[in-house]
Amino acid sequence: MRSVGIVTPQSMHFAPPLPLQSGARLADYDLVFETYGTLNAERSNAVLVCHALNASHHVAGTHADGAEGWWDNLIGPGKPLDTNRFFVIGVNNLGSCFGSTGPMHVNPATGQPWGADFPVVTVEDWVDAQARLLDALGIERLAAVIGGSLGGMQALSWTIRHPARVAHALVIASAPNLSAQNIAFNEVARRAIVTDPEFHGGHFYAHGVVPKRGLRVARMIGHITYLSDDSMEAKFGRELRNGGLAYSTQDIEFQIESYLRHQGEKFSEYFDANTYLLITRALDYFDPARAQGGDLAAALAPATAKFLVVSFTTDWRFSPMRSREIVKALIDNRAPVSYAEIDAPHGHDAFLLDDPRYHALLRSYFEQVGAR
Known about the structure:
Keywords: Acyltransferase, Amino-acid biosynthesis, Cytoplasm, Methionine biosynthesis, Transferase. By secondary structure, this protein is of the alpha/beta class. The protein has helices at 123-137, 150-161, 180-194, 212-226, 229-235, 255-270, 273-285, 296-299, 320-332, 356-371, and strands at residues 10-14, 18-19, 25-26, 29-36, 46-50, 75-76, 81-82, 87-91, 106-107, 112-113, 144-148, 168-172, 306-312, 337-342. It has an 8-stranded mixed β-sheet with strand order 1-4-8-5-11-12-13-14, with helices on both faces. Strands 2-3 form a two-stranded antiparallel sheet. Helix 3 (180-194) packs antiparallel against helix 7 (273-285) and helix 4 (212-226) packs across helix 6 (255-270). It is globular, with a radius of gyration of 21 Å. It starts with 9 loop residues before the first strand and ends with a helix.
């Protein structure tokens, strides 16, 4: 199966203010996006891909610098989401550090980077911004919206906020809201960042520094939750880095320690600290049932899309139980929904990997979407 090849990001400017859930309004913002495949004459074959925490608009193909799209194994000619059939759109969310307007950009009111003053954004705000982009592209209705993890929350929100614009929703390795444990992990990661001496209350750009220590720890915490115990054991076990104990409390002794430090170091080189705070807060806030007294079925009542909900057995961060909550609410509404729980050893990261059963499922589902 081929890749979509070299791709170039596009950018679109929006002058009209976007009303946010917080009550604030964001004007003069840019959204960066990529498209793959060809929009048909009826404009009926568009599929929107929503990204998770540290991903971006770069979903498939390769940039000129060699960077591969984060879901390239899924999207492309002849792949499960076939760009010979579908017009696929990846959008970078507001508040990100990968091109769309965010904390690193200049606040027009001050002439300085937004930093910590960038308004808090929510899943619902992202969905509304994505809808404006689709308006500008002349796409009234999506053949499908798909996302994993935080992206799955956006897919779910699409079916509530813009129900007439979504034919199918694929909600993968996601949840109707975060558990207390998940919020706790996010808070520990945020505290690691804000207590870094280089954070400077979120205005570290003016000081010419980056709170890398906090970012490293935040990434290490997050990465642990993305892997299952089984996959971590199989990959690292108790293997020592240098073959023997050094009897040190500060040196790297185990291979798993070396791996986590490497992941943290790499993350601190490219991700923005304020963006991390914003996106984890958006995760915390997502809870469509809150406005309905906790009744998820009532929250999903506006949805008219057909659903595919997918979970993975060893995903303990967004466990199958949470996906089944979504399925039950949809069944209570007599909504058309298919559910698959895939026995995979990889933990939460399974939604990004090339599992043959998982990809066969998505291929089959998109063939049905295309046939309709």
